[in-house]
Amino acid sequence: LLFLWSITVSIFGIGGLLGSSGSRYLTVKFGKKKCLLCNNVLMIVAASIMGCSKISQSFEMILIGRFMCGVSAGLCVPLHHQYVGEISPKKLRGFANSTSSFFWSLGKAMGQISGQRELLGSQSLWPLLMASCGLPALVQLLTLPFFPESPPYLLMHKGDQEGCKKAIRQLWGEGQHQAEIDDIMKEKATMKNTKILSVLELVKEPAFRWQLYMIVILTATIQLCGINAV
Predict the structure, then answer these.
(1) CA atoms within 13 A on the CB side of 42
(2) Helices (runs of H) and strands (runs of E) counted in the chain
(3) Most CB within 10 Å of its CB: which of 8, 16, 142, 195?
(4) DSSP characters over 74-137
(5) CB neighbours (10 Å) of residue 176?
(6) Per mean pLDDT, which range of 90-104, 148-162, 168-182 is the poorest?
(7) Could you tell me if 25 and 78 are in contact, meaning their C-beta atoms sit under 8 angstroms apart?
(8) What is the dihedral of CA 199, 203, 209, 214, to 10 degrees?
(9) Residue 229: pLDDT over 90
(10) Dist. CA 208–CA 75, nearest whole Å
């Protein structure tokens, strides 16, 4: 039982690693909006599997659902930050990106509170608690189709300048947005001369060695500071 419990908890992180590793390839190939929509479907399926695990008397469904949730979360974190930042006007971009972290923390806090035995953490309601992660995914699945694709993606990866202008007008309203389009074009020109490193190449690159050390130390410190125990 202890082994199964440990696997159930840790398999979320394994799924997250796989999901985040494939996020770049999927966003370039399919676009951020399509990836987010498909990711919502994945999360809803995972929530449904976990919600039905007690009725089916199958702990394997919890394992599968947790793994799928991890993949979905791994995809969602970089995707969400990128999409929110790219559809926001320049003067609100920093604020929009910070809201992602705020709601990420708020969601974790709400999950901890909902998991109390007095609320959804009881013996009869815990399947409902595990299925609750599908609710925000359903909300986004219903609302996201009304939003356009990311303007930088349309211009940089698809070469659709008219589609980019239309998306900008839909997001930011009518007006002169040529300066923003010029910025995207400059970024596109810069990317042509910049080599995209793989994870292995990044680890081997001496120029990024100290930055990599700092990130690893900070991340390890967060895990060892006692927050998980709290």
Answers:
(1) 20
(2) 13, 0
(3) 16
(4) HHHHHHHHHHHHHHS-GGGHHHHHHHHHHHHHHHHHHHHHHTSTTTT-STTTHHHHHHTTHHHH
(5) 7
(6) 168-182
(7) no
(8) 60
(9) no
(10) 24
Mutual angle of helices 23-30 and 32-51, in 10-degree steps:
120
Using a pLDDT cut of 90, give the percent of the chain over it: 20
92 token code pair: 């609100």
Which structure tokens are listed for 22? Answer: 């494939």
Higher-pLDDT residue of 227, 22: 22
Asked if 39 and 72 count as a contact pair (C-beta separation under 8 A), the reply is yes
Structure tokens belonging to residue 173: 């309203």
Spatial contact of 52 and 127, defined as CB atoms under 8 Å apart? yes
The CA-atom distances, in angstroms, between 107 and each of 83, 135, 168, 170 are: 19, 12, 30, 29
Q: What is the pLDDT of residue 14?
A: 92
Q: What is the pLDDT of residue 138?
A: 94
Residues 6+ apart with CB under 8 A from 80: 36, 100
90 vs 160, 168, 183, 188, CA distance in Å? 21, 12, 10, 17
Q: Residue 199 in 3-state DSSP?
A: helix
Angle at 68 between CA 63 and CA 73, to 5 degrees: 125
Is 90 in contact with 180 (CB distance < 8 Å)? yes
Chain position carrying tokens 């009518």: 174
Distance CA 141, CA 139 (A): 5
SS3 174: coil
